[in-house]
Specification:
Elements: E1 8-9, E2 14-18, E3 24-29, H1 31-37, E4 40-45, E5 51-52, E6 57-63, E7 67-71, E8 76-81, H2 89-93, E9 102-106, H3 118-124
Antiparallel strand pairs: 1-2, 2-3, 3-9, 4-6, 5-8, 6-7, 8-9
Organism: Chlorobium phaeovibrioides (strain DSM 265 / 1930) (Prosthecochloris vibrioformis (strain DSM 265))
Domain Lipoyl-binding: 24-105
InterPro entries: 2-oxoA_DH_lipoyl-BS, Biotin_lipoyl, GCV_H, GCV_H/Fam206, GCV_H_sub, Single_hybrid_motif
Length: 127
């Protein structure tokens, strides 16, 4: 299972990557999540400008087997949606790269410290 060391993780299998500006982050679902969901056929995200609290639902992922909610790993505002996700299978193919979901302005960048690092997430998923 692919668990990049430069990301932070949630118990709900979202990842977050703080970008170089220190205030903006990319958010997506983990490789573990996409493999458990199976073939992803549709991604629905809240619109740009939506203000989210930590753990607030920011969208859903529809797979052949199920529909799953997406939870914001940190509080912030959605700045951009990943237009590539019109081809939802991108999430299965590249969950940490082209398959990111939203770009957020993070309300408090230090809140990422409360999320799991790669080692803790790997342990949680039994890796």
């Amino acid at each position: 299972m692919n668990v990049p060391g430069d990301l932070r993780y949630t118990k709900d299998h979202e990842w977050v990557k703080l970008l170089a500006d220190g205030a903006t982050a990319l958010v997506g679902i983990t490789d573990f999540a996409q493999s458990e969901l199976g073939d992803i056929v549709f991604v629905e995200l809240k619109p740009e400008g939506t203000v989210l609290g930590e753990q607030e639902i920011f969208g859903t992922v529809e797979a052949v087997k199920t529909v799953a909610d997406l939870f914001a790993p940190v509080a912030g505002t959605i700045l951009e949606l990943n237009g590539v996700l019109d081809a939802a299978e991108t999430v299965n193919q590249d969950p940490y790269g082209e398959g990111w979901m939203v770009k957020m302005k993070v309300a408090d960048p230090s809140s990422l410290d409360a999320l799991m690092d790669a080692a803790a997430y790997t342990e949680m998923i039994g890796g």
